[in-house]
Specification:
By secondary structure, the protein is of the alpha/beta class. 51% of the residues lie in helices and 14% in strands. The protein has helices at 5-15, 27-40, 58-70, 86-95, 116-132, 150-156, 160-170, 194-203, 218-226, 236-262, 271-293, and strands at 19-23, 44-49, 76-83, 99-102, 136-141, 174-177, 208-210, 229-234. Helix 2 (27-40) crosses helix 11 (271-293) and helix 10 runs antiparallel to helix 11 (271-293). The N and C termini lie close together (10 Å). The relative contact order is 0.16. It binds glyceraldehyde-3-phosphate (G3H) and zinc ion. Residues 82, 183, 211, 233 line the site of zinc ion. Zinc ion is lined by residues 82, 183, 211, 233.
Length: 299
């Protein structure tokens, strides 16, 4: 059931739902994502972000995802998230991703912005190679960031003009736009620029991508999907589920150890005792999002 992201997001935009793109960093998170999709009968995108390179060799995580994919009964794509250089994108292309994001909006440090021309240059080169291999390409124009003032909006939000010009210049399949979301948790209630999204969607038929999906209120998610967002990235919400489950499990273990010690018994150590509940918690968090995105039952 391994497909390209284009095979998933084009029908999603046409039918008014979004496909979730969920970040995996280890076996439990990957298993949780596949498990949630099977239970909800949902197409999905499993993604590895460039920063994972400092934690594990992508070949290792990729092999695990491919092994899980062999048992999948719902369509899914394997995606590189936020590829910031031509070299990194090529490394994941060679690995066999069926979709990738070339994030030319920021320099390789992931912080300082690239110029429009620099963004076009790196995006074009990556798109040419990826398309030659039948791989879907996502790119980004605008700067993600929470909006709390008109100045913020002017500085961050993607304009319809630049979106149309950029897609014309680079020819990608999916476009990530800045509409008031941010990576990680929001400070207070986010302000999603639906009017701006409507302007962009009115002029561009390709599937639009919402980054920073964690913490976006469900009604804003549904509105954005109705306006043309067909891929929604979720990472932090999975991490929060993992942390909450680990903290709860460690407390349980501490209590059990205290009883064992008091009874003069021998402690039993099992990493799976800590990790198994995290897998379940992450699976539930992903299922919750698949329901809100409207992809549940679409497989
Ligand atoms: O590319 C990944 C996402 O944009 C994740 O954002 O951590 O806010 O869910 P998030
Ligand atoms: Zn992102």
């Amino acid at each position: 059931m391994l497909v390209t992201s284009k095979d998933l997001v084009v029908p999603a935009r046409a039918q008014g739902y979004a496909v979730g793109a969920f970040n995996a960093v280890n076996m439990e998170s990957a298993q949780a994502i596949f498990g949630a999709a099977e239970e909800t009968r949902s197409p999905f995108i499993i993604q590895i972000t460039q920063t994972t390179l400092s934690y594990a060799e992508p070949e290792e995580l990729f092999a695990l995802i491919v092994a899980l994919g062999k048992k999948a009964t719902v369509p899914f794509a394997i995606h590189l998230d936020h590829g910031r250089s031509f070299e990194v994108c090529m490394r994941f292309l060679r690995l066999g991703v069926t979709s990738l994001m070339v994030d030319g909006s920021l320099q390789e440090d992931g912080k300082s912005p690239r110029s429009y021309e620099e963004n076009v240059d790196v995006t074009r080169r990556v798109a040419a190679a990826a398309h030659a291999m039948g791989v879907t390409v996502e790119a980004e124009i605008g700067r993600l960031g929470q909006i709390s003032s008109e100045a913020d909006a002017a500085e961050h939000l993607t304009t319809a003009e630049e979106a149309v010009r950029f897609v014309g210049d680079v020819g990608v399949d999916m476009l990530a736009v800045a509409i008031g979301t941010t990576h990680g948790l929001f400070k207070g209630r986010p302000r999603i620029a639906h009017d701006r999204l409507q302007e962009i969607a009115a002029r561009l038929a390709l599937p639009l991508v919402m980054h920073g999906g964690t913490g976006v209120p469900d009604e804003d998610v549904r509105r954005a999907v109705s306006l043309g967002v067909a891929k929604i990235n979720i990472d932090t919400q999975i991490r929060v589920a993992f942390y909450d489950a680990v903290i709860a499990q460690v407390h349980e273990v501490e209590k059990a150890f205290a009883e064992t010690d008091a009874a003069g018994g021998v402690r039993k150590y099992d990493v799976r005792k800590i990790l198994a509940p995290t897998r379940e918690a992450m699976r539930r968090a992903v299922m919750d999002r698949m329901a809100v995105f409207g992809s549940a039952g679409k497989a």
